[in-house]
Amino acid sequence: MENRFFVDSDKLSPAAIEKKHRLEHDPSSRTDHMAYMEGMEVIHSDIYAKVISQMKAYDSGQYTAKDVLAALEHETCSVEDFKALLSPAAEPYLERMAQRAKIETGKHFGNTVYLFTPLYIANYCENYCVYCGFNCYNDIQRMKLNREQIDHEMKVIADSGMEEILLLTGESRSKSSVEYIGEACKLARKYFRMVGLEIYPVNTEEYRYLHECGADYVTVFQETYDSDKYETLHLLGHKRVFPYRFDAQERALMGGMRGAGFSALLGLSDFRRDALASALHVYYLQRKYPHAEMSLSCPRLRPIINNDKINPLDVHEKQLCQVLCAYRIFLPFVGITVSSRESESFRNGIVRIAATKISAGVSTGIGDHEEKYSGKESDGTKGDEQFEISDARSFGEMYRDMAAEGLQPVLNDYLYV
Amino acid sequence: MQKEDQLVLGNKTFQSRFILGSGKYSLSLIEAAVRDAGAEIITLAVRRANTKEHENILDYIPKGVTLLPNTSGARNAEEAVRIARLARELGCGDFVKVEIMRDSKYLLPDNHETVKATEMLAKDGFVVLPYMYPDLYAARDLVNAGAAAVMPLASPIGSNKGLATKEFIQILIDEIDLPVIVDAGIGRPSQACEAMEMGAAAIMANTALATAGDLTLMASAFKDAIAAGRKAYLAKPGRVLTRGGSASDPLTGFLRD
Q: Which of A282, A353, A394, B137 has its Cα between 20 and 30 A from that of B5?
């Protein structure tokens, strides 16, 4: 079964509808997704070939129970061991994987869990990514916060007790310029100890500028590492260029960022291959930039406004847990973030096994924190959400719940130097 | 034990040879470390204390305890110096533990940068305790740079492998005139005892206490183990305990006059 992504808004002009349909159904109408667009920096990295060649050669069906058991017995998990742990043959050994993952998490992170919250400052987008609520053809309320509004949102979030923030935008250079995002970073430094970014990929010098503005962590989701599948999902805009996106984390590190986050959106393509590629992306970059702090997350597809049928297909909670345990065993030192896309019970369980970072007080909409945090109706317009969240716990609830799980909530472990 | 057996670091003297490491922090851990393990020095990760929640961390620290801020998060000497100065501004005093890591996987200290930072901080009036990989040349450089002690790692942090670098720590103890404080990897009281018996000046631990089933009991176990090891060292171990051993029939027994 496949997701049915295409939805036509009746507000689109006939010409826009025609273009949209052509993009959806006629591959020849789409640009070459492997060709860089003007202004995109080429860094000639060796990482791409290493990751993609391994992913292409990966046949998850060839691994057996024997391979899985051997992997669990090895003190250090090799790339081959990791491939076995991601395979269907490992599913019957999930409890053993979880036990091992818990030990590795404890060794490297103790019994701590980091709390953070995302702040969407704009949802304008020039891309047509068929599964995303912000896509340029989707009929949603668009909004971009101005300086005062950003300041207000940050104050509301900071007052709740949060000390780490992740700033997000839709992908629109024209509406949300690098300078605009830089100003938001400077504001964020007033209220928060740690500022991360999840924005459209930019060039090395732009990452350097954003770092100087106060950001120190860059997360970019590759969505899927299968470039052929990627091409059928990202039909328009800068995001269409697969290799430029792939090298984003490396450019961020070259630009002086302290760390980088990685992810595939599970449910778009073969999730085992995507999980393999995500982890190898981290593995090879860590070898090249050993000082960098790396993190992985593992989002699954969620329903969006105007399409409530979107779902993660064959990636059930059990498979998600397998992927997260395999990540932890293979890369014991990386942070693992679990999104509010997942349920409260799943998140409570996974932080005791493999996850080290969890969001709370989440809104994926624009300018609605005060209303969501205090219930106070405000008169201003709001921008619509990127996707539906599942776990809506506030910062305070999450702090209490994590402590009740026997974990020590950590609000900051970081110093901007 | 001899009355004058004190640990001297910079201009301060300490009765206790247990130092609480940073990492896992809670009020109950600090209490147990001070009350049951007898700690007089408590490490504080400046980056972890850099939160609104812990802004009053100094209030947590019992009177008479010396705070030892560390520079974890620093990737080079300049960053370590900045973090140390921030700690001093926060009111943490002049003691600083230099920690410089340029590897996020193993968190091994970078001796080269550590020597540079030690020199800058010592000139700036800090009492510098550098965390290091147990390398003799680096330890000598740290002495020359003005360190108040050296802090070699026993094994990779979090590994619980005990004294994996035992031979090299022994070389530092034998060759370096500063106190040698064993840090990282000490998972059990017996390992702490062994290091003290070798002549280590003090032991730093955190996880071993923080993750124990009975925090109070484990804290006092460390106190006893460290005291036992220190006594054995001062007692000058007999031939059973000394390195190399000796033959029961003297090899030189054939010499006649």
A: B137
